[in-house]
Specification:
Strand order of the largest sheet: 4-3-5-7-6
Number of domains: 3
Structural class: mainly alpha
Number of strands: 7
Distance between the termini: 74 Å
Order of helices and strands: HHHHHHHHHHHHHHHHHHHEEHEHEHEHEE
Strand content: under 5%
Radius of gyration: 26 Å
Length: about 600
């Protein structure tokens, strides 16, 4: 039994974690973000054209989700239970990627280190939105794509056939781009680097060793096979896209998508500055200490490359230890300041690992290039496109970069232990082990106790019986609100309620994406996200699409969808507070819409 556990404990721990996370999937219903992604996919299935009739900038992720939503509807016959089903699927997909992460990382570090790496990845999900959000899909796809590249490298070195891994990496990378379109710039930059390396390798003055290194990397084949994988997804995606929206309509509509109210891009300089501002706001003095540690470690790394480095090896080692001690103290501060927020421990872990990476005599640059650079670009990109530029979106990139934290830390421990006495060596090992396990413990804890936009765990006692959220446990008050809204939607917001066949367009204000999943009416809004009745976007949308004026409008009471503070989010007692007025209000008055009071708000029905 002992031998069995020693051999298989990584898989056992991952399976136990999967069971725990499957149970966790039943708790807490988010009325906003989680259902939003599927409401867009459902909208496309109803016939609305991407970009032309749907204007939200992250909609490409929902095109990726669309065939899975269609399959679910084919099997289930409706959207009932769709949220819980995709939560369960999310856990299973994350488990498979975590297992692949362990298998690949086991060849880069120790078995124990690979296990912790896989568990850190498995328990992390952005803000505990427990589904295939564009945030989660971008992180999952980024990690898996880079893992397949590492697998290619490992198999190539061992003489195995490896090119298939590049094809699969390209397929997954295309999903990553669909979830995070701005990262196409990263791919273009990577291709540019490939071309430069290839050109340098054929210039005669370049040393033969460099040409040999480039040749051994098979860069041309690498690029072509990876591109093949991208095309396997890109071609059918493009066929779908441009058979549903003409090129003219796309070009005319893309400006509306890019000028969304919540996602206003800034300049690269402002984004770069904001990345550091976010860190300093979240961590204060500890962020600046971390910058110092990183800068000094880079200087020490450059000094270690000089001809006189051997003479001053003891001095360099002592300086490196001093940096480590400061880095460790800084991590404690970062950890404490960021505790309670999902993703912030990943930021702390990356800030801790960067100095250690440059203190290594033989840093694993292949891990740095695949994960840390990509993660950094993701952090920059999310900061660039997110409203308010919060750290919690940039932390997604840090989570991807942090995938290599444990291997780097363990390599540093092994290197430094070689010139330390017994007691300092043990202290070093204990300190680094504490860092790793504290990050894992915090990630696991937050996954279990942070509830996104519902209520604290102890109040989630009522099971939702039907509708899109069927099977999920929520609070008593939220269940009452949910059933009130669902009853209204079933009674008044379906085409069967209007025998004349003329009522087919629905608008729900302000925030209730799951409402559209309960109706066979089409969405009469630029998007199913925070569309207030007085929104200027509605006037713009109806000017472009005069055939989209709603036949039924549900204006929710302001307290509908309220949620309590829990970890990452502050409470919001009135998420549907909606200012009246605007063009649509005037339009409904002029066209004699019937006003009807319902328990969850007010209905306006075209005569």
């Amino acid at each position: 039994m002992k031998a069995f556990l020693q051999k298989h404990y990584p898989l056992i721990l991952l399976i136990l974690s999967a069971l725990i996370l499957l149970i966790r999937a039943f708790y807490g219903f988010c009325w906003s973000d989680e259902t939003f992604y599927y409401s867009i996919a459902y909208r496309f299935l109803q016939g609305d054209a991407p970009f032309f009739e749907e204007w939200y900038p992250t909609q490409l992720n929902s095109i990726f989700l669309m065939p899975f939503v269609a399959l679910y509807r084919l099997i289930a016959g409706s959207n009932d239970g769709i949220i819980l089903t995709f939560r369960i699927l999310y856990v299973l997909v994350s488990f498979l990627i975590a297992w692949q992460l362990f298998r690949v990382m086991e060849k880069e570090t120790t078995k124990w280190g690979a296990t912790v790496t896989a568990l850190l990845f498995f328990y992390y999900t952005h803000l505990n939105i427990l589904t295939f959000s564009y945030y989660a899909v971008s992180a999952l796809a980024a990690v898996l794509s880079m893992l397949l590249i590492l697998k290619y490298r490992q198999d190539l070195k061992s003489g195995k056939k490896a090119m298939r891994h590049l094809v699969f990496s390209g397929i997954v990378f295309s999903v990553f781009i669909l979830s995070m379109p701005s990262m196409i710039l990263y791919y273009i930059a990577a291709v540019a680097v490939f071309v430069i390396l290839i050109l340098l390798s054929i210039i005669k003055p370049i040393k033969g060793s460099f040409r040999s290194a480039v040749r051994d990397l098979h860069l041309v084949r690498f690029f072509l096979y990876h591109l093949l994988g991208i095309c396997i997804v890109a071609i059918p995606f493009s066929i779908y896209f441009f058979t549903h929206v003409s090129l003219t309509d796309f070009l005319n509509s893309v400006i509306y998508v890019l000028t969304d109210e919540e996602h206003v891009p800034t300049t690269a300089y402002v984004t770069f500055k904001t990345c550091f501002t976010n860190l300093s706001k979240a961590y204060g003095i500890f962020a600046y200490i971390s910058y110092v540690c990183i800068a000094v470690s880079i200087i020490l790394f450059l000094l270690s490359l000089t001809k006189t480095a051997k003479k001053h090896e003891n001095l360099l080692n002592a300086a490196g230890l001093a940096v480590f001690v400061l880095d460790l103290a800084c991590y404690i501060g970062l950890f404490v300041k960021g505790s309670g927020h999902t993703g912030y421990v990943q930021v702390s872990l990356v800030l801790f690992l960067l100095p250690m990476f440059f203190l290594l005599k033989k840093p694993p640059f292949h891990l740095f290039v695949t994960f840390v650079i990509l993660g950094g670009c993701m952090a920059f990109s999310y900061t660039h496109t997110s409203s308010g530029h919060p750290l919690y979106t940039g932390s997604i990139g840090f989570a991807v970069a942090g995938t290599v934290a444990v291997p780097v830390i363990l390599q540093y421990v092994k290197q430094t232990s070689s010139f330390l006495n017994k007691t300092p060596k043990q202290l070093l090992q204990i300190a680094c082990c504490t860092v790793i396990l504290s990050a894992l413990f915090m990630t696991m804890t937050l996954r279990m106790i942070n509830i996104y936009r519902d209520d604290v765990p102890g109040n989630l006692t009522e099971r939702i019986p039907d509708g899109p959220a069927a099977g999920i446990l929520t609070s008593k008050q939220h269940l009452t609100d949910y059933e009130s809204v669902l009853s209204t939607l079933k009674t008044y917001c379906n085409t069967a309620a209007y025998p004349d066949g003329e009522h087919r367009l629905l608008l729900i204000t302000k925030l209730l994406p799951w409402g559209y999943l309960c109706s066979d009416m089409q969405c009469a809004s630029p998007y199913s996200w925070r569309t207030g009745i007085s929104s200027d976007r509605l006037e713009l949308y109806y000017n472009v699409h005069p055939d989209k004026y709603p036949d039924v409008v549900l204006v929710l009471n302001e307290n509908i969808g309220s949620y309590e503070a829990c970890g990452d989010v502050e409470k919001d007692p009135n998420p549907n507070a909606d200012e009246r007025g605007g063009m649509l209000d005037q339009y409904m008055l002029e066209h004699d819409y019937t006003e009807k009071s319902v328990p969850c708000g007010t209905l306006y029905i075209r005569p």
